[in-house]
């Protein structure tokens, strides 16, 4: 199935709204991690390689995003957050916007991305 940019953007927006609802209702740490893993695996229309690299560079140097992290807690376990996790990953069509990010501590981020262990 081929998605247009507009269709992909609409589906991502709907998915992020659903994510916030489901995530806020999760009653355990394990359920929240499962939800994050599921949403991280969603694939929408991917960005081309140039666009993906530009998004990653902007993400890494964006002052506002770093400021957003100050004095914040992990949204799973409430420990001090050190990582910004993309709900829909950049390589799968996600964007560098605040609603596509959650603050995670190092341990919870490793649970979502097992290859980081």
Radius of gyration: 14 Å
Structural class, from secondary structure content?
A: mainly alpha
Task: List the strand order in the largest sheet.
Answer: 1-2
Q: Give the integer mean of the pLDDT values.
A: 81
State the shape. Answer: globular
Number of strands: 2
How many domain regions?
A: 1
Report the order of strands and helices: HHHHEEH
CA distance, first residue to last residue: 34 Å
Compute the number of helices.
5
What amount of the residues lies in strands? 5-15%
Helix content estimate:
40-55%
Features:
single chain, 51% helix, mainly alpha, two-stranded antiparallel sheet, 5 helices, 117 residues
Summed up:
With 117 residues, the chain is mainly alpha-helical.
List the helices and strands and how they pair.
Layout: H1 5-25, H2 29-40, H3 49-61, H4 63-69, E1 83-86, E2 101-104, H5 106-112
Antiparallel strand pairs: 1-2
Helix pairs in contact: 1-2
Question: Your description of this structure?
Answer:
This protein has helices spanning 5-25, 29-40, 49-61, 63-69, 106-112, and strands at residues 83-86, 101-104. It is mainly alpha-helical. The chain has one domain (5-116). The chain has a two-stranded antiparallel ribbon with strand order 1-2.
């Amino acid at each position: 199935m081929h998605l247009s940019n507009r269709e992909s953007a609409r589906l991502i927006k709907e998915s992020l709204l659903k994510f916030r609802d489901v995530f806020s209702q999760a009653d355990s740490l394990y359920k929240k991690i499962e939800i994050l893993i599921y949403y991280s695996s969603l694939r929408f229309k991917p960005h081309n390689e140039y666009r993906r690299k530009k998004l990653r560079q902007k993400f890494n140097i964006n002052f506002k995003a770093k400021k957003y992290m100050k004095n914040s807690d992990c949204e799973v376990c409430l420990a001090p957050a050190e990582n910004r996790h993309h709900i829909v990953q950049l390589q799968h069509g996600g964007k560098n916007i605040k609603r596509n990010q959650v603050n995670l501590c190092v341990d919870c981020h490793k649970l979502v991305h097992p290859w980081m262990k």
